[in-house]
Design brief:
With about 325 residues, the protein is of the alpha/beta class. The protein has helices spanning about 15-25, 40-45, 75-90, 170-180, 205-210, 255-265, 305-310, 310-320, and strands at about 5-10, 30-35, 95, 100-105, 110-115, 115-125, 130-135, 145, 160-165, 185-190, 215-220, 220-225, 230-235, 240-245, 245-250, 255, 290. It starts with a strand and ends with a helix.
Length: about 325
């Protein structure tokens, strides 16, 4: 393995990881951005027809304009934009490369990936949270019919589909597969209503589809078993059995806490398991190790977005330079 020495190693080539690379480039620091997937891998794994909450200007990084043809940009526009950012800045990315081991040393960090080894004076973790879905923990969850990621509606045409959850992703999925010809769409929701944070322009649509019976919704309900051709659930109406071809479990995702802990980063005792870091510098309890982006919120994955965590890059690089 080749040994590569850098001032800053950034784990995660999402928008905030790229923003950190840009600030390192501007500061004249040697750096590399390593990601186990493709460029902006989390965005790539979003549903193909997804639309962002934010307007395009709030997704901009590196002084590169983001021009969208829509009031709110689409996934495909965002992928094109961040490719253009990476190309414009000639960012030093190492994609499809997974960091497997990190060791803290007096000089910084020794890191090993599946391709090579690194020596880094500073480490920035901008890994997001999209890789580890919350599991249902019920019999049958490992059947091929159960999906924790959603791509597009075509495979579910003329199928009986159960959607688990009632947040934005669940609502979007339920509406799209319904409109693209699913035989039936049933939502299983633990809470008593559709999540209040669902996009305001979508909320009336899902409420009306449920009210008219186009989409069946069971609230205060839980799946208890998944079989090849059915799903069992407990509801306020009692136990039910639903004829079923696919289960789309849009139950949310969580950060990789084990990676943080392997470096020695402390995880808070609060309900969101918020990692310990200095809000003024983004440095963790491990000197030279920084957090950026949504990973800062722990399990509260709706605390940080691209638009409100772009500034993390400035805070981190300014602190590194001050040392």
């Amino acid at each position: 393995m080749i040994l590569d020495k850098v001032d800053v190693l950034i784990v995660g080539a999402g928008p905030i990881g790229l923003a950190c690379g840009i600030e390192a480039e501007k500061a004249g620091l040697s750096y590399v951005i390593v990601d186990k997937g493709c460029l902006v891998n989390s965005l790539y794994n979003y549903p193909k027809n997804m639309t962002f909450f934010s307007t395009s200007d709030r997704l901009e990084i590196g002084e590169v304009p983001f021009i969208s043809h829509n009031p709110k940009p689409t996934r495909s526009e965002a992928l094109e934009y961040y490719r253009r950012v990476a190309s414009s800045w000639q960012l030093k990315t190492r994609l499809y490369e997974q960091i497997e081991e990190v060791t803290k040393t007096n000089a910084g960090f020794e890191l090993s990936s599946n391709k090579q080894k690194y020596l880094a004076s500073n480490l920035i973790i901008a890994t997001g949270f999209y890789d580890l879905p919350y599991l249902l923990d019920v019999p049958g969850e490992k059947l091929p019919k159960v999906k924790h990621y959603y791509d597009e509606p075509h495979p579910y045409y003329d199928m009986n589909v159960v959607v688990v959850g009632a947040a934005n992703s669940s609502v979007d999925v339920a509406l799209e597969v319904y409109r693209k010809g699913a035989k039936s769409v049933t939502m299983i929701v633990r809470e008593e209503e559709i999540n209040p944070r669902v996009k305001y322009w979508v909320r009336p649509d899902i409420d009306n589809r449920i009210k008219e019976g186009s989409i069946k919704a069971y609230f205060n309900s839980n799946i208890t078993r998944i079989d090849a051709h059915s799903v069992e659930a407990t509801t306020p109406e009692g136990k039910i059995k639903i004829e079923n071809d696919f289960v789309l479990a849009m139950t949310g995702y969580q950060p990789d806490f084990s990676f943080l802990e392997s470096i020695g980063i402390e995880i808070g005792k609060d309900e969101f398991m918020t990692p310990v870091y200095n809000k003024a510098t983004m440095q963790t309890n491990v000197p030279g190790a920084y957090l950026a982006g949504v990973i800062c919120g722990g399990l509260k994955t709706n605390a940080w977005f691209i638009e409100n965590s772009r500034e993390h890059a400035d805070l981190i690089i300014n602190h590194i330079n001050s040392k």
